[in-house]
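Supplementary Methods. Inverse-folding protocol.

Structures were first reduced to a discrete structure-token string of length 208. This string, shown here, constituted the complete conditioning input.
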């Protein structure tokens, strides 16, 4: 059976320079580029010669650069999709974490609110999850006979995993799949056609 292989983008400048994430468009660090090469080597060794593969990526620079490095190892064209971006942080894009914390909209409660809009012109979690589900339904319908590599962001990867497990929006209030930079997650099905998380946030390709 075909798998969906998710790769969280590697270390980006926003991880080390106090910039906010979301739609802030930062490149990989030197370490991030080395991490992406390690991922490419691992995926190249694991790829079956008789299987079909396709490679998708968010168009934000940190994901696109990770995908480009991996693509050279796999000899695949990168298909960029804007819907694979991290959550839209609206006016906070391009700002520091300090600015974002100071300008975040006040919350009505302390829990997870699917309809809370943290920043003007940004997305709510409900809107973000709907976008991710729409994107993945389209990709899966189009490519489900192939193994699908997807390079994306931490929040998006968590929501793709929730989509695969058929979470309703309300279910993401109480559960979340948290990965890390350069982690590999493998989604598939068993012989009962149940949806399975075969591997989550594998970082064994990085030295200790």
């Amino acid at each position: 059976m075909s798998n969906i292989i998710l790769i969280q983008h590697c270390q980006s400048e926003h991880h080390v320079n106090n910039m906010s994430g979301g739609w802030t468009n930062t490149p990989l660090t030197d370490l991030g580029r080395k991490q992406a090469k390690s991922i490419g080597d691992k995926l190249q060794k694991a790829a079956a010669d008789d299987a079909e593969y396709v490679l998708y990526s968010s168009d934000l620079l940190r994901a696109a650069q990770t995908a480009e490095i991996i693509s050279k190892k796999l000899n695949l064209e990168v298909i960029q999709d804007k819907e694979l971006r991290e959550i839209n942080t609206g006016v906070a894009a391009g700002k520091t974490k300090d600015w974002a914390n100071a300008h975040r909209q006040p919350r009505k409660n302390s829990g997870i609110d699917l309809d809370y809009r943290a920043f003007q012109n940004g997305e709510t979690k409900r809107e973000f999850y709907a976008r991710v589900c729409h994107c993945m339904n389209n990709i899966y319908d189009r490519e489900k006979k192939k193994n699908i590599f997807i390079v994306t962001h931490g929040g998006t990867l968590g929501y793709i995993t929730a989509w695969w497990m058929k979470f309703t929006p309300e279910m993401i209030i109480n559960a979340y799949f948290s990965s890390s930079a350069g982690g590999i997650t493998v989604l598939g099905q068993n012989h009962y056609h149940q949806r399975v998380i075969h591997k989550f946030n594998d970082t064994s390709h990085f030295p200790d």
